[in-house]
Amino acid sequence: SGQPQVRVGVPIANRNRSEVQGLIGFFVNTQVLKADFALHSRFIDVLQQVKETALQAQAHQDLPFEQLVEALQPERSMSHSPLFQVMFNHQAQAASDAHAQLSGLQVRGLEWDSRTTQFDLTLDTREHDDGLFASLTYATDLFDVSRIEQMARHWRNLLIQACHDPRKRVLELALLEHDERERILGQWNQTQMAYPTKLGVYRLFEQQVCRTPDAVALRFGEQTLSYAELNRQANQLANALRERGVGPEVLVGVAMPRGPRMLVGLLAIFKAGGAYVPLDPDYPAERLAYMIEDSGLGVLLTEQAVLARLQVPATVASLCLDTDTACYASAAAEDLPLDVDADHPAYVIYTSGSTGRPKGVTVRHGALVNFLTSMAVQPGIAASDRVLALTSLSFDIAGLELYLPLLHGASVVLLADQQNKDPFALLRVIEQQAVSVIQATPSTWRMLLDNAPPQALRGKRVISGGEALSSELAQRLIDQAGHVWNLYGPTETTIWSGIEKVTDSRHVWLGKPIGNTTFHVLDAQFDAVPVGVSGELFIGGDGLAR
Q: Are 87 and 118 in the same domain?
């Protein structure tokens, strides 16, 4: 459970008075025993503590459990017993046990197959000449057979280790068997896959340009850009950025409305060797001013109307893509010869930060390429796909919508500002542009489904992430679209780290780690915990940010 203190119910015979010893009847009472599990305590010391607690409790065994509950007034629930949810019942071996003889009778124990349970979990133990017999009774609404069998194995492991060396500290007693540990740490993290470690996203895009120069790369309302045209404009702007000192480790702010110029600017920054910092024009002026100063921008890409609202230091060169076109319109249109290193930054995303102040997370080119390579496998991408780009550039998940299509000959369908907040505008774009892949948070999905006609998402590939996907919403998406993927990951591990196709809305998981990524659920001592035991999720692999 991960809890340092546990309470367990224990039945007692409650026949300590001589006058009731020979009476037939039900006198059993229930006591609640508390145990403290300090991880650095020796097992033998914990055992002594439990022994003392049990002996002290004997002095109060006449107090009915019902009166104890009435006196303490715990918060009650119809779903579980008050004060404790786990019962432990131990039966010592009596002198007359096993094949006891009564005059004219042969006595033997009767096995009882319980079909009901009062508690979440009950452990019954009974002493025999050849050892200890144990059985578990459990609530099937909470546990399945495999979980209980696993729990029994772990308990047996603890007993064997504790008996072998009772002076071991509690934290040194391992729950996991060797094979189980190997499966959790090794087999479940076999995510190795090849990806182009020496190529940046822009080089992979340029390769796609050579394969499909006339295919539509970008759709924005009535406007379209072919792969060749998008590449030409990005190359020209990249040359202008190079002239302004942009290169590896140089950060370029991007503060502009959504549209073709935004995507051209992002690709140009990559081609110039720099990294971009999204600056959402809708953010408060104070937040934008802090991000500009904290990041140490070298150049700012923007538009005239946006620039007028920003506080830009004199040390930052500003380039307005709507009015300064002469600076780059006549520049060379060929691919630049510059190559970036996999460890060079690709972008810096500002998150809220644990202190409330925005915190910049620097994502490497290699991490971004690894992510996109894995996404091409699952959930997958095809040249015929049209991917809806609805997420603000200030959220890292926009990277899937903008870059994955461009590496595989597909089309980016870019929403204009504010369209992602209007469900009817969203639905119109999805229908008019024949969108096939949509990524959104559960909040956006709920807004969309609440306003969508029955067939609006039929056949679409649905990607959900950024928030917990409820079973109810998952079922609605399955009913509407059929192809539903749940993804999980913090910004610090490059967009998404876990992926799972949702086929049963009763089980919505964080998913398995994507390519070249590892998931480890560890306890406070950084040791692996068994399946079903709480711990902290540690993510490793090629997706880690700087």
A: yes
Do 384 and 300 lie in a common domain?
A: yes
Extended strands (E) in 38-147: 86-91, 101-102, 105-106, 121-128, 131-138
Domain CATH number, residue 137: 3.30.559.30
Give the whole-angstrom CA distance, residue 289 versus residue 297. Answer: 11
CA 144 to the chain's CA centroid: 24
Assess whether 18 and 152 both reside in one domain. yes
How many other CB atoms are found less than 10 A from the CB of residue 351?
15
CATH number at residue 340: 3.40.50.12780
Mean pLDDT is lowest, of 4-18, 136-150, 204-218, for 4-18
Structural domain span for residue 472: 201-515
- pLDDT in the model for residue 97: 52
In a domain, residue 538? The reply is no
**Structure tokens belonging to residue 456:** 């609006």
Distance of CA 457 to the CA centre of its chain: 25
- Are the CB atoms for 191 and 177 separated by under 8 Å? no
- Which residues make Cβ contacts (< 8 Å) with residue 108, sequence separation at least 6? 98, 99
Give the Cα separation of 287 and 358 in Å (integer): 8
On whether residue 404 sits in a domain, the answer given is yes
Q: Give this prediction's pTM.
A: 0.87
To 5 degrees, how large is the angle CA 69–CA 73–CA 76? Answer: 85
Spatial separation of the C-alpha atoms in residues 120 and 221, rounded to whole Å: 57
How many Cα atoms are found within 13 Å in the side-chain-facing hemisphere of 129? 5
Domain-embedded: residue 252: yes
Angle formed by the axes of helices 201-211 and 227-243, nearest 10°: 140
Domain total of the chain: 2
Distance CA 334, CA 232 (A): 7
